Amino acid sequence: MPSPLKIALAQINVVVGDLGGNADRIIAQARAAHVAGVDLLVTPELALCGYPPEDLLLRPAFLAACEEQLARIAAALAALPGLHVVVGHPRERAGGVARERSWSLPPCLNMASVLADGQVKASYAKRELPNYQVFDERRYFYSGRDAGLGAVVVDVKGTRVGLLICEDAWFDEPAAAAQAAGAELLCVINASPFHIGKVEEREARMAERARAAGLPLVYAHLVGGQDEMVFDGASFAVQADGSLAARAPMFEEALALLTLDAGRLQGEIAPVPEMEAQVWQALVCGVRDYLGKNGFPGALIGLSGGIDSALVLAVAVDALGVDKVRAVMMPSPYTADISWIDARDMAERLSVRYDEMSIVPMFDAFNATLAGEFKGLPLDATEENIQARIRGTLLMALSNKFGSIVLTTGNKSEMATGYCTLYGDMAGGFAVIKDVAKTLVFRLARWRNAQGAEIIPERIITRPPSAELRPDQKDEDSLPPYPVLDAILARYMEQDESIAEIIAAGFKPEDVERVTRLIKINEYKRRQAPVGIRITHRGFGRDWRYPITSKFRA
């Protein structure tokens, strides 16, 4: 019987394209693991280059640089005897993009290599390539199966470890092949983006895989934000019977230590936070990493006195700190007094810089300039949108001058129905709550207030939502009640139900027709919206690719 195997799961936050920096992170984790007496260190999928590298994988120089850094990591391990490190990285396939410049076949393989004693001991190529939701791997990767590469099992201190990469573990064949090759432990490296319910889904599927193979399983997962995607960590291990053996914390870097002894895994189990806490942490992580990894010095937010901008301000402060966040209130002729009061109150509660810039003089100037063109025509959304666009112009001017990024405040319900203004409230660099439905906005506000001091004034939460672009305006003048709207949105956009199916579920036909029509006709707006954090299994972004010009109406 092999002696106990000490394993570490390196839950790290890497940066796409920062090959040298990512290699340094892996080497630092290896040194810490070696000090802790670890035999096997496991890093996430494509940890060397970051995930997803997208079209960087089409550049021969990028793939060559990955190989150079992989060799550097291997060389560093010569000073750490006995330690085996699993590193995720891309590798140019034979006859790849650098040799044939052919678009008929993907240029590279998604690899997991085992490094030890200064050498690359073995390399495994991912077999199952996801091509759904945010995944587009068949554009870039050639399957290890199609390349004629089989299972890889390596001996680590007398234990035979079978390698798998992410999607491989969701299917029977790759794990069965590793088992047939003599694996006694399944080692899965992953980069699996967060969405609500994903943690539970992952653990359930890996429990099935462990039971099917009759083998214990360890799962090393990425953490951090990358553009619209957030990776939540929560690396874990399950016993051969599928029971949970260990779990790392969510949304933070960790070196999770566990031991395999006589076929049983032992480690610490971090709790899974409640849903609202997970979403909040995802939003905070997404903002912190988008600004931090792209070098923005701070954030600008147009604070209206409404719940959406209040929520975005609270997330930004939690992510960046008060010194890097600035709120600007830009009242119009229709701004209610309570909006001023509530905006000032919230800014004071969070101790952020707060400024007021009236848009009345500019609005009057626009109206005067357009008076001849609009003579005899009634006021409508045109004048409303002018106000929003003035605000967008002011925020972008401040952004240009001082370098801070504008965080937009539109939620998923508004993005779905087009209840937003191009070059107005849609103007900015990062859409924090783009994938958060309005009903969830209210839940998150109440959850955050329950975590200590009430930072979002109660009246902001309880006031009827309004864009305040005309006298006594309310959102529900133009839209169905948000619980109805969000339920229809979830069924139509996230679950792909037809109009007939939604009506059959009990919704009023007029509400269903109205909401689905708005979703369709506002695709052109969403194409011009900033990238935003994805927290559902289908957001308006990488996993929503609908034509702008389309006559399909079911």
From TrEMBL:
Q: Which GO terms describe its molecular function?
A: ATP binding; glutaminase activity; NAD+ synthase (glutamine-hydrolyzing) activity; NAD+ synthase activity
Q: What is its EC number?
A: 6.3.5.1
Q: Transmembrane helix as a keyword?
A: no
Q: Where does ATP bind?
A: G302, L303, S304, G305, G306, I307, D308, S309, T409
Q: Where is the CN hydrolase domain?
A: 5-262
Which pathway is recorded for this entry? Answer: Cofactor biosynthesis; NAD(+) biosynthesis; NAD(+) from deamido-NAD(+) (L-Gln route): step 1/1
Keywords in alphabetical order, please: ATP-binding, Ligase, NAD, Nucleotide-binding
- Binding-site list for L-glutamine: Y132, S192, K198
Q: Which cellular components does GO assign to this protein? A: cytoplasm
Q: Which InterPro entries match?
A: C-N_Hydrolase, C-N_Hydrolase_sf, Gln-dep_NAD_synthase, NAD/GMP_synthase, NAD_synthase, Rossmann-like_a/b/a_fold
Enzyme class, first EC level, given as a word: ligase
Q: Which BP terms from GO are recorded?
A: NAD+ biosynthetic process
Kindly state which reaction or reactions the protein catalyses.
deamido-NAD(+) + L-glutamine + ATP + H2O = L-glutamate + AMP + diphosphate + NAD(+) + H(+)
Which top-rank group of organisms is this from? Bacteria
Enumerate the residues binding deamido-NAD(+). Answer: N385, E414, K525
Spell out the catalytic residues: E45 (proton acceptor), K126 (for glutaminase activity), C166 (nucleophile)
UniProt family annotation: In the C-terminal section; belongs to the NAD synthetase family. Belongs to the NAD synthetase family.
What role does it play?
Catalyzes the ATP-dependent amidation of deamido-NAD to form NAD. Uses L-glutamine as a nitrogen source.
Query: Which HAMAP family did the record assign?
Result: NadE_glutamine_dep
Which NCBIfam families has this protein been placed in? nadE (TIGR00552), PRK13981.1 (NF010588)
Q: What is this protein called?
A: Glutamine-dependent NAD(+) synthetase
Q: What is the native source organism of this protein? A: Roseateles puraquae
Q: What is the lineage of its organism?
A: Bacteria, Pseudomonadati, Pseudomonadota, Betaproteobacteria, Burkholderiales
